[in-house]
Structure formats: structure tokens, C-alpha cells
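User: My instructor asked us to take a sequence, write out its structure as C-alpha cells, and then describe one feature of it. I'm not sure where to start. Here is the sequence I was given:
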Amino acid sequence: MGSKVFLSGWINKKRDHGNLLFIDLRDNYGITQCIIDKENSNFSDLEKIQLETVIKIDGKVVNRSKETINKEIDTGEIEVVIETFKTLGTCNELPMPVFSDQEYSEEIRLRYRFLDLRRKKIHENIILRSKVISFIRNEMNKLGFLEFQTPILTSSSPEGARDFLVPSRLNPGKFYALPQAPQQFKQLIMVSGFDKYFQIAPCFRDEDARADRSPGEFYQLDLEMSFVEQDDVFNVVELLLTNTFKKFSNKKLIFSKFPKIPYKEALEKYGTDKPDLRNPLIINDITEIFERKDVSFEIFKRLVKSGSKVRCIVTKDTKDKPRSFFDNIDKWAKEQGASGLAYFTIEKDKDILAKGPIGKFFSTESLEEIMKKTKAQVGDSIFLACNKKTELERITSIARDKIAKDLKLVDENTFAFCWIVDYPMFEKDEQSKKIKFSHNPFSMPQGDKGKINFEKPLEILAYQYDIVCNGIELSSGAIRNHIPELMYKLFSIAGYDKKQVNEKFSGMINALSYGAPPHGGIAPGIDRIVMLLANEKNIREVTMFPMNQNAQDLMMNAPSEINESQLKELNLSLKIKK
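Assistant: Let's start with the prediction itself. The C-alpha cells for your sequence are:
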């Protein structure tokens, strides 16, 4: 104590006690309380100074009195008595206070992001992001992966999201694309004889913003491995994510070995291929019950005859819940665009019976059959929905989450990872009715390559997989198709002839023709990993300089107009639609 110090930082907060002025001085590492009394000639100047002014103080470190110790900050047992100070950077009137984590509009926060980033919570989130990336990089090095950087200017791809295009000055009329991912390049790295690659890769996609997706650009841990099968990739990623989440969070990991759930099963049991496994509720298909003569619920029976399915969600021991609980969920479902959720509660007098608005339509025998299929018991309640497959999956998936939330079934202090596997290679476009790739077009189909039934493309499964945590998809990956003739065949099913494949994927298809090893990989999203670790709901809270919902950078005024001479140099002219 008594040491003389120089401290520099921002004035976070001031408290004027008349004869004594308290100043909280903030820097990247935290806050230090500084004091100055009225006898000091600098008192009046510090009293008038604007918050967020950058100052340098010269003072002496002293112990705080016991009653004023602040255990919430690292410097809470000491304070600095100011002797002199110097202003290093003045500050205008603030558009938003920095010392508070109060919510402000997106426009204010993004326009003044440099101020927003000074605020405690988001400042700590960005530091966490840096530490997570450094940790991941070290872990990948330990696992024998080599870090390479792939090109940012590349060719446009016909698959996936919209590309960001860059006109070429030296090649008039031609355009580069910013990479949606380093997909082709990382495969070419494997063909080049390197067997383990990674990078913290920037990716660019011209797609709309969501809570878990930034518009424009994002970062992913891109990795690829040669001479591997699906489980080899899983083992690396599970080890990496387990170590990362244990390092940076006190939350419990529910599964030490991540469950593998086939895509079809995920849609049936959870209504989505992004299930939150912290939620114990399971969806069951009970369509065949409505083909029984002793079930008289005619609305559902007619829909089933026309091709609809019936699925249900069982809630355990909810017999004592008030009628309002069930009616509110039914009302909520209608607000989501569904026709509602029918429901009843299983009771027992002499026989099994159902209590609720539709209970009278079920015989004892039909209820016993439902209980057998769903493992429901007396005292449980059942919510039912009936519709065509896609809409049925949508409503039961969000209903599963809604019901679990209302019943407080989800432990927020846990992480539940899982793999979704066995994705279909192709799907039918609902509008055009044409066959298209469902995931990555460069994936390897499952099964004996000589026995694949190309006449039934919708039945072909691929070695494609997603990793999901708490209902958030962290990444898609695949074992790659490294056989050119097989690739031509699969692309032909999706409507591409050999010439088109050669033109669009010339680098890839050419490389695979010169001895390519079996290989596969994945690319977990850095932004989403940090979002989960920081316990944030929006990816903006862990991104340093995000764009707004309209893909605009309000701080730097991007995108912006360019002048005529720039257009002329690029051999471009604009024709803007009114």
C-alpha cells in the first residue's frame, strides 16, 4: 500500500459526495475506484468532466475501509487517491450510456458499436470469443492438424445460398465470388496430400439474418481429414467440443458420448433435425388409432383418410393442471398458424377413460392402445395434432418446445449435443417438383457403390451429418464423394449434365481424376459456439461488428454507392429498378 501509480482509462462513472468525488476508471481489464477530495485543485475540473473521457491519473494506492470493500471487482479492496490528472481524449455527449447494460435499439447500438463494445457484458463476450478461438486453435494443433488459409476470391457455385459477387477489372464481364465456405479448396488440400487441415475461416453468404445467423459473413472452424470414415470425424469433433465447453462453461454436458440420431427418426420423434435434447418430451405417431371403429373423432378421421398423419406429445403427471394450461397451449398453436392442439388427460375409474374436450371420442380399448404406443400412464395428458407431414412436423416441433418451457422441463444449466445422421442425398423441390440435392452435393452416398438404386433417388442416403447443441445447429459435414464417375451420376439426377459439372466444378472434378483419397470433414460455426458459451440468444451479442437485419453496416455506412469512374473502370453500368 502507499505505492504511487499511473492509471489510464475511461471514466465509467462518477459519484459526487460533496467534499469527495469518486471516479470509476475503466480499461480493458476492469474498473478501479479513484477518489479526490475538494481540497485538491483538480477537484472542480474532474467534477465537470464528461463520462467516457479518457484520462491519465497520478495517485497513491490505499486500502478501502472494511465496510466499502467491493468483492464483485478484482480491485475491490483498494482505491487510488488522485493527486493529478491529464485528459488524453475528450468525449462528446453520449448517445447511449456505457456503464449500463440496459437494452437499446439495434440502430443505436450498431451505429455506435465502438461505444456498445465498451459495455461490460458485450466486452466480456468478445474477449471470450478471442479466448475460445485461441483454445480451439491450440487443440487442433495438438490433434495434428495443420492450419492453412484458402482463397477469398473464387468462382461462383450453383449450389447453396446466394453468392456475393466481385467484378473483375482485368477480366471484363467476369466476376469472382466470395466463398460461402472453403468447401472445394479444403477437399483439394486433401487431394494435394495433406491429411489434416483446419482454419478459422471467414464465410460469405447473401442470406437473410436470423437470431443464430449473421447476414453477410460469419466464421467457422473448417476442418478436413483424409483416409477417414464418419466415426473418425465424430471422434475428433466430440473431443474438441467437449474440451472447449468444459473449459469455458460451468454448465454440465448431458452426454459424454454424443447420441447419433437418424434424420428420419429425428423428424418423427422431435419434428426437426435440430432437436433440443434437454427437453424430455417425445413426439409419437398415432395415425393408425384413427382408423379404428371405436374412435369417433371425425375431424381427424376424415383428415387421415385424405392422407394426413396424427402425432401426439405426452406430458407426464399433468392431471392436476388447470384447464387454462391446456387451453392456453391450444390458443398458442392457433396463433402459430395451426388449427390448434387437441388434448385430453388419461384417468381411471373402473376403466381407463379420457377427460377433456375430445375425451368422449375414445373408447377404453383405443386409449389403452394409445398408452401402449406412447408409454403414457394414468394421470398423463396427451396433445394431438393432425396435418400433412411437413406442417405436422413444424407445429409438433415448436409445440414440444413450448410445452416443455411452460412445464419448466428444460435444465438451462446443461448442454446436450447430438449428431443427426443418415440424411437423404436428394429431396423434391416443393414448387418445381424437381429432384435436388438436400445437403452438400459433394457427399458420398451410402452403401455398395455398385448396388445403389439410382432409379429411386429419394431413397439414397448420404454420409452427411449435422451436429446440434440445445436445438442449435452448429455445423453440417460429410464424407466426400471422391469418385468422379459417381459424382457425374449424382449430379445428373439433380439436372446437371457432364459438361455443366465440368464447367462449374472444373478444379474439383479435374483434381479427383488424379488419385484422390477418401476424405471427410465438418465446419462448426465459431459464432454459434461462442453464443452458447456466453448464454446469449442472438449472434449479434458475440460478433464484434455485425450488420443489421438488412445487411447494412450502420457504423461504416456500407453498402455504399460508388462513383461513375469506378463503374467505368470495372466495365459496369447500373440499371436500378424503381
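For the description part of your assignment, you could build on this observation: The two ends are 70 Å apart (CA to CA). Try explaining in your own words what that tells you about the chain.
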